[in-house]
Amino acid sequence: MVVPGTPRDSLHILDALLNLDGGVKPEMVATDNASYSDMVFGLFKILGYNFSPRFRDLDDQRFWRATMPGVETGTYGPVQELARNRVDLNKVITHWPDMLKVAGSLVTNQVRAYDLLRMFGRDGRPTPLGAAFAEYGRIAKTEHLLRVVDPVDDTYRRQMNRQLTVQESRHKLARDVCHGKRGTIHQAYRDGMEDQLGALGLVLNAIVLWTTKYIDAAVAQLRAEGHEIRDEDIARLSPLKHRNLNLLGRYSFTASVPAAGALRPLRDPDAPELDEDEDEPVGSE
Questions:
Q1: Which long-range contacts (CB under 8 A, 24 or more apart) does 192-200 make?
Q2: Quick one: which of 188, 163, 211 has its CA closest to 30?
Q3: Which parts of the sequence are annotated with region: Disordered (predicted)?
């Protein structure tokens, strides 16, 4: 998806999620310093996504408490001092039917998430519906912050960081493949840019598939040789590592038709290492 460099790129992420043509719906949407606001949190929350940005200014974030009108609650214990700001749930209750209509319009592609910003604001101030989404988003934002700073259970924080690591690895691979590490698009028109990005995506998918097949073959061979391979270690293997790929320099191709499912022989780790200039990893192109 080609998007402009605007401060609300997180809503373009939401548009992309709502237009997925297959696969499992993601539960966590981890982003690295993506633009965020209370309204953005509210939109992701009402659509069933766990928006999980990595805050650059974590110590400046506000924590909010939500209390139903007429319902008395106890203290918040050690986080009592953090929860000094109160969510106005009356705004959410009043506009809840309209908020559900907005969610339905997004799911059915009647409106884009990015276009909602103009609907939620007027003269630099939020409309009543926009303010209701902001109040609702403050609940989701506070839940996210509490999980991130949890001093006991770091499962959520680790899961978020794992997703960000995968994304950053994919971006690095794309930059290396695209124009010899320059990562720039020189086409003058949008159609040309989309064609170039589409070709880049095809190459990246081919690399990931190729690397996955060889990783699987290497694991199978190690197990056949009697090495202990733990499933938790396999789960951490990534097909986005690409030091073995020859991205720049001279290419050679041999016209041949490989047998169905055949792979090139794996490199012997005990064999003498080639010099860096002579390094041509087995199976690389």
A1: 193/2, 194/2, 197/2, 200/174
A2: 163
A3: 262-285
